[in-house]
Amino acid sequence: MFGLRKWSTPFLRPAGPFMVGGAVVFYLVAKMQGAMIDSDEYRNDPRNPAAGK
Questions:
Q1: Which residues touch 49 (CB under 8 Å, ≥6 apart)?
Q2: Domain ranges in the chain?
């Protein structure tokens, strides 16, 4: 009665576009953050983690 069913509920196929979209958004936000850290406006800010280089 319990356990694996003959027709299992699909998970990856309907959730696949959301996983891909999440990965793309994560990548783009990381790229934007890196570009903002290296910008001229915040290059000498003491709160900038890349300022010590």
A1: 37
A2: 16-53
